[in-house]
Amino acid sequence: MMLSPTSTRRLMFLVGSLLIVIFPFFFIGGPTFYSTPLFRKLWDCGHIVFFVSVVIAFYTKINISGWRPFIVISVTVFVLGGAIEVIQAHTGRDGNWQDLLNDVAATWLALFWLQKSNLWVWLGRLIAMALLMPPVTAVFFAAWSQLQAEKNFPVLADFESSIDLHGWKGDIERSNVFHSSGNYSLKAHLNTKKYSGLSLLEFYNSWQGYTTLSFDIYNPEPLPIDLVIRVSDVRHELGANVLTDRFNKKLHVESGWNPIEIPVAAIRQAPATRQLDMDSITSMIIFAMQLQKEQDIYLDNVRLQ
Known about the structure:
Structural class: alpha+beta
Number of helices: 8
CATH architecture of the largest domain: Sandwich
Largest sheet: 6 strands, antiparallel
Number of strands: 11
Shape: elongated
Low-confidence stretches: none
Order of helices and strands: HHHHHHEEEEEEEHEEHEE
CATH class of the largest domain: Mainly Beta
CATH superfamily of the largest domain: Galactose-binding domain-like
Helix content: 40-55%
Number of domains: 2
Radius of gyration: 25 Å
CATH topology of the largest domain: Jelly Rolls
């Protein structure tokens, strides 16, 4: 498709402006460990927008039809994208080779869509779209998870849907064997390492205005087990990570179901020299220390009241 000189100039201005705006953000800014998954996934898609724009910039200047321009542009993008990742790895950012794959796939998508359709071009388009499916679907999944979490709040997780696993870490899976509400709970396998447990690392809402953190733990063993729960905020995570700057509480869990209720005021007042910021809770971890043998526990109905 040929553009008029005026249309070409306008397109070049828009594309050039976009490239100038996006490029610095490969090295500055960006999500932190405490950013929401949705923000992190959207940020990653900046690679796709940037390299599609690069191809459009080539398109306004040269004929990109045929395999020779395709190879030249692909190699150029691979080298440029690789250089960006190497520089990021040495400037405090994470060099991510998945980003490089996204760079190349975005380039191919733009190259194939800008060429006249035929069987091989359509095959190329499908391959490029398949390669870009993971980052694109990750955005939709993160958005859906955040929407559901905000909709269900103050229930933090009841594990009735697989979406409730989002944000939880550990050797975990949904289980319908034991449950205190609904039909599912979270099964966590504890090993004999120094620390073993499960954690929730993604929060979208403030804990202000609530009086109690409640949840149920099922111990399938005949003997009790001692666990620890810790809750921390952004300031703690960015600081020295000392024990006296977060909430810690021992939990003596008997055989069977154990309803746990922890006053939010106790969590807030836990740090020795300040109050925990209930607007920026970043982690809730339940763990055991140096178990004599491996065992499972079940967590259900995690909520604020």
